[in-house]
Amino acid sequence: MGAEAERGDAALLRATAAGDAQALATLYDRHAGWLHARLSRRCADPETVHEVLQDTFVTAWRSAGSHRGGEAGGWLWVIASRRLVDARRSQIRTSEAQAAHAMRDTDVRRAEAPSAEERVLAALEYGDLGTALDRLSPELRAVLRATVVDGLTTREAAQLLGIPEGTVKTRAMRARKELRKALAAFGTPAPRTLGGTA
To answer: What domains lie within the chain, and their CATH numbers?
Structure first.
């Protein structure tokens, strides 16, 4: 395990893509802690957080061959945040189905509406903003998600993505500019949370 732990993330992902379960275990040991912490800040249900974390690494196992280089941390966080959105949507659908069933039975309960955070996450995934984000290059998208969506400082984003703080600032400025341009093409105003320069 000692030599395995010294390998970089890119090498571990290549090994994972080739079916090396120990490489995936090393990636898990390296990244599961901070992923769990960040997921827990977005979701108060420990069971959901645990399931999303497991789904993240199952997805990483299956799709490691599609990783295009760069830092594994940002790639894993994109997977984890999407799995969390999926889990919340599933919970909402289940809640709504249960509520609808209860309404038929008792005619007094109303379907539970998604929270404001769930609506924002859904817009990020499926609205104009999500489409515009998908058009950014992966490195710009990772910086924007870390600094705007996740609310990390420049220093925290640099540590997460494994790049210098100056690079985070430069990429954040480029990402905001490109995102505003893409949103303007849709006729959608840029969110105020994008702010100015990093």
So the answer is: 1-112 (1.10.1740.10), 127-198 (1.10.10.10)
pTM for the complete prediction? 0.49
Take residue 32 and report the two structure tokens written for it: 């599961």
Helix (H, G, I), strand (E, B) or coil at 23: helix
Greatest Cα pair distance, the chain, in angstroms, is 63
Q: What is the mean pLDDT of residues 122-128?
A: 54
Residue with tokens 């959901």: 48
Which residue do the tokens 């609506």 mark?
119
Taking the CB of residue 12, how many other CB atoms lie within 10 A of it?
Answer: 23
Span of 24-28, 44-48, 98-102 with lowest mean pLDDT: 98-102
Tokens of 158: 């640099």
Rounded Cα gap, residues 19 and 76, in angstroms? 18
